[in-house]
Amino acid sequence: MYDFPIPAPLCHTALFADNIELHTSSNSNVRAAEVLQRYLNHIGLWATDWCLVFSIDKCVLLIFSRRRSMNQDLTLTLNNLSIPIETTFKFLGVHFDKKLSWNAHVSITLAKASRNLNAIKILARGKIGLNFRSLVRLYKSLIRSRLEYGAVVLSSLSKSQTYSFEVLQNSAMRSIIGAFKSTAVALLNWELNIEPIDFRWKSLAINYLLNLNAKPFKMTYHTASSIVYGNIKWKPRSTPAIVPLCKNLNLIDNLNIFNNSASTVRPLPPPPWQSPHSEFSKFPITKKMSLQNPGLARATFLELYESQPANTINVFTDGALRDNRAACVFTIPSRDVNKAWKLPDNRSIFSAELAAIRQALDYIYNFEIAVVNIFSDSLASVMAIHSQRVDSHHLIKDIRQIVSNLLSSGTRTNFIWIPSHVTIPGNERADELATQCLSDPASPVLSITPSTSEFLNVIHSARISNLSRSLRLACPTLLPSSRCRMGLRPWQVHKSTVISRILHRLRSGRNRLNKTLRHFDADNDGFYPNGCPNLEDSNHVLTVCPTYEISREPIRSLVSGLKLDFVLPVLIGICENIPCNSQFKIRDGVVKFLTQSGLISRI
Question: Are residues 201 and 326 in the same domain?
Fold first, then answer.
């Protein structure tokens, strides 16, 4: 397909595998048809030269317009065969309709996902149903994967269309965890660690856009750039989804997405016959063996260290990470050189290791040396430098360029991986410097640009924090500040799926006790049937109801022995500051109490 006809003026084309899409835009469908027909004639001649035959049955003409008076009676031909006109068409898994309302895609996707939801409901039933973790995995693989396909486009759906997806997801979450319809959706999102649909779509779209922004050599980059920075004034209902997303991203740290002046030519890996600019070798002893026998590792290293030729410099590099702050160091024992820097916040240990190597190479660049040995305990960093990937970390590109420049000036660079924490002198000194650098507030800060993955981690952390805050506001009593992270803790579930559902209903406050039934049955007065003056809810039956005091005595003694208050948050496991072993003991005690008192059949 390398000689496929170049698009005519005002006509655009996109190729993916054996799928070809042609499009143009105009105020008149007649003029648009003329542009496309001229290009189709060139394609027909090209196909004739190569003895190719296009299947007209798989070709479709689709006119996108919201005008009611738009004429749909157009005829386009390819090799004298008319291309059929359709109002909807599936292209690369997305269903397009003539008004771009996405109604067809929404209805078809929901119908397919609903059939898979029935399978999950069956697997969740009964006493031997699948556990929560397995059901969530099934939901994410069978249902959510369908709902989030094409997230870059779907994030522009209307509120009513998005709500229809949310209804399906809420039904799936209730089936998984055994919740009633009156259970707060925010609690379901929190306990199953499943984000709302709109939040998930925007997260995937941001992930795609930031990764695309780092690759200006891709054709999609230019399409996105023309949409975001073009002179087109979009109407509210016609605005592409990436336009508001990119505007919001540009407000963060001056990202200036899709406005990169970098080279648009894809860099190519070196040919296999070209010798590498540097050498890479591993320590002759594995990390496991070195940890088991540090003396052997130290002796082996000293033997290699002393056998170095003349005019050789040995450099030890290291990185450290603590409390979201990283540091990079290098040391040259033969010249008594020790350098250390802190990195800006939210930098990874991988970036710290690469920054240490780059700073070391920068330092020795002005020396006339025959061989430079870089000793690093980061195998991932050293292997990444010598990999064939060309779209990797920006520090790797800098290191490769410096190594190439050193080779041009007569200096050979060797990268050697050594195991860490096995009493190798230079590595231990570098590790000590990194720890001191992180503890010293006066350490200099090395400014490096965050990688795409680091930037994504920062944005994801901020979005998850905002989501947690919004879920707490929607359900403040059920999601107190003591619940630190989204998801179920190990002590909040049980090996029995039925008991796990009972524990969830106690946490949610939505169960078959009289206080909940009062909302649905006007004849129920909401009071405990034995005449207790308080409303029957989770707190009542677990802590104060006198009817169950005899069955409650063992769990009360257990909690008292652990020096904890006998209150509902402690019993239902939402106080995450309690030690894990104590949490499991309390859970088992509560389960035993519910079984002996007969409450387990009522909740």
Answer: no
Look at the block and give the residue holding tokens 């930037």. Answer: 455
CB-CB contact of 593 with 554 (8 Å): yes
156 — pLDDT class (breaks 50, 70, 90): confident
Strands 325-332 and 94-97: unpaired
Give the pLDDT of residue 351: 93
Q: Are residues 592 and 497 in the same domain?
A: yes
118 in Cβ contact with 112 (< 8 Å):
no
Supply φ then ψ for residue 99, to 5 degrees.
-100, 0
pLDDT in tens, 224-233: 888 888 777 7
Give the long-range contacts of residues 481-487, CB within 8 A, separation 24 or more. Answer: 482/569, 482/574, 482/575, 482/576, 482/577, 483/190, 483/574, 483/576, 484/576, 485/576, 486/189, 486/190, 486/191, 486/193, 487/190, 487/191, 487/192, 487/193
**Same domain flag for 442 and 535:** no
HSE of 519, CA atoms in CB hemisphere, 13 A: 13
Residue 534: domain span: 490-601
Rounded-to-integer distance, Cα 393 and Cα 403, Å:
16
Place of tokens 């407000």: 251
Distance (Å, whole) CA 402 – CA 413: 10
DSSP 8-57: PTT-EEEEETTEEEEE---S-HHHHHHHHHHHHHHHHHHHHHTT----GG
Assign 106 to helix, strand or coil. helix
Residue finishing a domain among 387, 419, 450: 450
pLDDT of residue 558: 94
* Residue position matching structure tokens 């005019």: 311
Q: Percentage of residues in the chain with pLDDT exceeding 70?
A: 92
Would you say residue 55 has pLDDT above 90?
Answer: no
* Final residue belonging to a domain, choices 231, 250, 269: 250
In a domain, 293, yes or no: yes
- Whether residues 92 and 107 share a domain: the answer is no
What sections of 139-279 are H helices per DSSP? 145-147, 151-154, 159-177, 185-192, 197-213, 219-229, 242-250
